[in-house]
Amino acid sequence: MLTLKRIILLTIFLFPFCLFSQTNVNNNSKFTIVIHGGAGFISKDIPDSKKNEYLNSLKEALTIGKKILANGGKSIDAVEQVIRYMEDNPNFNSGKGAVFTAIGTHELDASIMDGKDLSTGAVAGVTIIKHPISLARKVKEKTKHVLLSGPGADQFGKEIGVEIVDNHYFDTPSRLKNWEKRHKKKIEKHGTVGCVAIDMYGNIAAGTSTGGISDKMHGRVGDSPLINAGTYANNKTCGVSATGVGELFIRNTVAFNISALMEYKGYTLEQATDEMIHKRLEPGTGGIIAVDKDGNYSLSFNTPGMFRGVANSKGLFEVKIW
């Protein structure tokens, strides 16, 4: 019969091993990360120098996220840091490379979601926030709300201490040229950026950031800051980030429906993404990136091209445009 003293000694001896076992269960050193830099008409006739510039930018973004995950970092941190890089990169339609509105200004949207607890944060129509994705995360973590918009979101950014810039900071010569030619066909319209990741602990996170569509109406908001339409993450199923014609992604609740098809109908990730992108949406309207709870990924689009990349703990590292 065990005495109280023996029970206490046995507990002290076994406690560290219990902790070690639990850590091993949760941490299997596996991770997957996917990124996108927009989908739409991307001419294959672009100069090799420009093509390589895009590919190198995607590689840099992917490397940032992979390093965080490989070092045991959280998926939500990887998503935020990858998108911050893309917001600083004028090759993409977010942050510094944002397109112009119809009145010649920039209005930025972003959202982020943690699949562990479904916590979310988003901002829409911000005009002075250097990194909208970081402000979206602040909304998630520092307020009781999900979505802040316009001047209120800008004011919250000032109060919380994120980096503030003049609206003209987002100007780039190429975007201005496109805006001036806005009535011509085949102008770049879809350039949203996004990232989805699952970390070593099985937690999925997703984020999306955009400057919207070129020549959009003042005040227009697309799917990127709307959870369930342009962004979704749930540890039970998958994480999703979308890019394309935002109005269609909103009407079809694309990001959530991919998860719902998996949870309620038993679809695989590939089946669910193909159902939404190739059967529910019209050709030429956009694409998604997604990662499921087992680390499988999908990069599905119905446009001529989508800037995209994927990396995982098995050594896969790949970026593509077409």
Description:
With 322 residues, this protein is α+β, with helices and mostly antiparallel strands. Helices cover 37% and strands 23% of the residues.
Strands side by side in the biggest sheet: 4-3-2-6-5-1-11-12
Radius of gyration: 21 Å
Specify the structural class. Answer: alpha+beta
Low-confidence sequence ranges: 7-27, 183-189
Individual helix count = 9
Q: Largest beta sheet, briefly?
A: 8 strands, mixed
- SSE string, helix = H, strand = E? HEHHEEHEHHEEEEHHHEEEE
CATH structural architecture: 4-Layer Sandwich
Any idea of the CATH topology? Glutamine Phosphoribosylpyrophosphate, subunit 1, domain 1
Write down the overall mean pLDDT: 90
CATH class: Alpha Beta
Between the first and last Cα atoms, what is the distance in angstroms? 71 Å
Q: List the domain count as a whole number.
A: 1
CATH superfamily assignment? (Glycosyl)asparaginase
Number of strands: 12
Q: β content, as a range?
A: 15-25%
Helix content: 25-40%
